[in-house]
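LOG
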Amino acid sequence: MYEAIASSAGLTPHLAASLAGEDMQRRAELALHQLEDTSADAGHWRDAALALACIGQAEMALRLLHEAVRQARCYTLPCAQPPRLRLLMLLAVGDLAANAPLECLLAGSAVAITQVYVDLSPLRAQDLPEHDLLFIAVAHAPAHRELLMHLQRQLSDWPRPVLDQAAALLALDRVDVAQRLQGIAGLWAPATHLLTRQQLSEETLTWPLIIRPEGSQAGQGLARLGAAEQLPAYLAQHEAPNYTLAPFVDYRRPDGLYAKMRLALIDGRAWPCHYALSAHWMVHYVNAGMYEDADKRAAEAAFMADFETWSRPHAATFAAISEHLQLAYVLIDAAELMDGRILLFEADHAMVVHALDDAQRFPYKQVQMGRVRAAMVDCLLRHAGGGHGVS
């Protein structure tokens, strides 16, 4: 079932084109046009699916992806340099949030990536492409629980090193993460609870709070509610069986802005990936004005330039987060409170980090994300035991 191998451009060029301001609709149309060619193979179908996903055409993108996977489950990505390491990424069939986009961070590196879409079928190393290291890219989500449990069983005695085990990914539920990180010095991980719709009407809740449907990502359905009177209207707009709740923490800086940092914890060491400023409590880099506001970019550049000094008092905290989560590679969204503690919003291995921003607008990010990429390559080589040709 894994014999067929196709070549795919992958997600990276689509993300780079979007960040460069290209016409993504036109890009998707060109990708679809290629499918009319009789020589179109599984790689073309997959690339068209990714192009459509990038413009929000999720339903059609998933149909094209299913057709691609029907033809081939294995896809090799371009490698810009002679490879030092062969990385095999296991993926779930799904939308853009279904898998960790590690290839975006590794773009331009000497890591040769093969991506394989897996299901509940048995996995045998001899049926898969040769690799030095295996990485489970399947994102934590309720829909992926059965698949991750399957991978936990299948990879228990894998003949090659595995970076981050499925058991650790299964424990990345927001409720579990908050519970596991309690008591770490210098960290506030607000207690998070999972409640059914029925329980929401029965429980005594503490206000203000933040609420979202279980499993939602990228702020979908996320809201701050200040009183019980606001709950019925929220539930009417966001239909779901379960919801996660946590106390709202006011993390504004003295200047009144909210600052959210995204850090990559690589073998326990923190690396800054972005620092976004917004007047709104829900901070997303793409809508925080970072592209339009030179002052905000200057603040981010200063944060990155001073990060080594700033992070030194927090080093033990970041190392403890990695240790408690048992992940060599994990990303966190967090803020620094005025009392110096780190406020944790989320920990996951499937957030997007990359070195693809415009070099003229973000020259400092090119330098910093180059360091993050180098640290990640070093991490992969360490865990593989050296890289290409390791026996």
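LOG (cont.) second protein
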Amino acid sequence: MVTAIILLKAVRNRINELAQELADIPGVSEVFSVSGQYDLVIIARVRDNDELAELATNRMAGIEGILQSETMLAFRAFSRHDFEGMFAVGF
């Protein structure tokens, strides 16, 4: 499984609609509207790099309102949830 974080700058009056359109794309796990330099953050979870390329270059390219994107590949996940599971053995 490949996990990617995609940062988007969007047309201001399309942010909410754009977020919903993106959330409906297979492979998109979550979409967050955020403050700061970017408008939306997408968490994508796909089978392989080819599927990620399809998502980022073909499916997203056809959606109106995306001004700029930056895609980052996740190497490893670290979360509180993972650590709680390790120490909950036998409870």
